[in-house]
Amino acid sequence: MAASIKQGMEQKLQQKLSPLQIQTIKLIEMPVQALEQHVREVLADNPVLDDSPQKSDQEREVSITEVEAQEQSGGSMEENYGPQDDDIPSYNLHVNNWGKDERPQYNTFSVKQSFTGSLEEQLGYRNLDPHQRAVASFIIGSLDDDGYLRRDIESLVDDLAFRAGIESSAQEVEKMLKVIQEFEPSGVGARDLRECLIIQLEDKKRTPSVDNALRVLKDQFEAFKNRHFQKIMSRLHLSEDEMKAVLDEIKRLNPSPGGQIDDSYADQAQQVVPDFVLEYENGELLLSMPRFNIPELRVNRKYSEIMETGKYSESKADKEAASFVKQKIDSAKWFIEALRQRQNTLYSTMKAILDYQHDYFIDGDEGSLKPMVLKDIAEITGFDISTISRVVNSKWIETHFGIFPLKYFFSEGLENSDGEEVSTREIKKALREMVDNEDKHNPLTDDELVDGLSAKGYKVARRTIAKYRALLDIPKARLRREL
User: What residues contact residue 269 under an 8 Å CB cut-off, 6+ apart?
Assistant: First the structure.
């Protein structure tokens, strides 16, 4: 029996993004360094775009103040996502939305030589043959961000053969690993915490306390890990003073050598360049967006006039050239307008955060940081939550009390005993202070921490304390006990 064929109509509502919207979304996600690189790539690819100095003083330049005024007048990105195609006004064919003065260079934070790069440089000073150097370099590339080697030797031998085409042996890999373990920072290349601490101690000048610390880590690591100090003292015949000296030695060691100098150590160095700068002068908060080395862009008038006057022949070659120029002009218009809308969106979002957390931005006191989620800022700006999320991601602000990622200012809220909503960040700070000030001979249990926070006016459940301890990297009470 033949299957019946049915025909019907179905109505669907679909939203298609215009080229301008797509451009704007991509640009909003970019931090300032990535934006600068992208602008220069687009500039090199599109001959219609011009970044030469402005010839006429008559052309309108949009300052950051005007951007804010435009936003207040109702030109939000969601309501006016930008004119389509040729409807972009002529004054929008020039973008200069940043501050007037370029900074001579980035105000760069946390810029270090990459962790891998540092080890490769040290490898270059060793007298090794090309084969050994290739094996050692492969091991360096296999280290985790914290400097540990968490692959077993046999797996490395297999990886060298299958992934790098290098024939090696377990003995050679072990030998090259020992070479890497001599590099700075001390402890790098360790396969576990015990080995990491032992490497660091063996690099130190030998003293009685260093020798005792080595004995503890080599012979009594399990007992040490569980803070069973009395057992260690009894087994190794150490006095209480000698045990305290051992603990002092081990406390000065670094359990994460890959992050010893900078938390941003990774396979590639990370640079933190602020997208916003906040200054506090005469009791007033002043927000700006540095332009750095991002060039001013405009549509080259020569190409615009060709299209406006239609001064080209009807030949096939000229028509193709005119079509190409029109396509590039449209692309340039979209890109310039997308840049403008990026600036509008970023500035409006940061201004909303600044107004919402005004008291905090005066002096940076965490106690003044109010609970704030993406929805709060979306409601203030009129932007979608996804837009706020794109703005907040990978963006930083330089303030008069430090540099922070925008994510830092967002936190959930909990009620205190007065029924007021307080930031979870404030509660974490109070928890950290209680642990820092506790009697280390008799550290506070989670139940006691709950009681302590309750006395301070914070209503927190025991499971919440356990969760916050984990987030703050605070061990259980038993593991915080000291002699």
Answer: 111, 112, 113, 114, 117
